[in-house]
Amino acid sequence: MNTSALSNKGTLTKSAIGKIEAKKETHSSKAQKKTATPTFTNIVNIEISSTVKKVRRLSLWKMNIHQIAHTFRHPTMKPMSQ
Questions:
Q1: DSSP 77
Q2: Are 5 and 13 in contact (CB under 8 A)?
Q3: Is 56 helix (H, G, I), strand (E, B) or coil?
Q4: Which domain of life is it from (predicted)?
Q5: Does the residue 80 lie in any domain?
Q6: Secondary structure of the chain: what % helix, strand, coil (to 5)?
Q7: Enclosing domain of residue 38
Q8: Residues 6+ apart with CB under 8 A from 67
């Protein structure tokens, strides 16, 4: 889009507005067609959520190891109910 349409006191001409609206319509129709395929952001979000789950599992596992080691060091202390 050329800047001459914008330079007129910041108001767009009718033809420019029409072009923008047409672009929006074509873009939305393309977006609706592609909903079945996963987008890049969706893939990234899935990856992040899976890594977070893995980290949580790992931290729980580490806690269990620490707990076991603790019980071996102090035999009088009863291990936490699992």
A1: S
A2: yes
A3: helix
A4: Eukaryota
A5: no
A6: 75, 0, 25
A7: 12-73
A8: 79, 80
Q: Give the integer Cα–Cα distance in Å for 77 and 13.
A: 80
- Token digits of residue 44: 């990234």
Which residue, chain included where needed, has tokens 């202390």?
77
The three-point CA angle 14-27-47 to 5° equals 145
CA distance 57 to 49: 12
Q: In angstroms, rounded to a whole number, what is the distance separating the alpha carbons of residues 43 and 45?
A: 5
76/45: higher pLDDT: 45
In a domain, 81, yes or no: no
pLDDT tens digits for range 27-63: 555 555 555 566 777 777 777 788 878 877 777 777 7
Residue 78 lies in a domain: no
Amino acid at 43: I
Domain assignment of residue 20, yes or no? yes
Provide the number of structural domains found in the chain.
1
User: From CA 73, how far away is CA 62, in angstroms rounded?
Assistant: 17
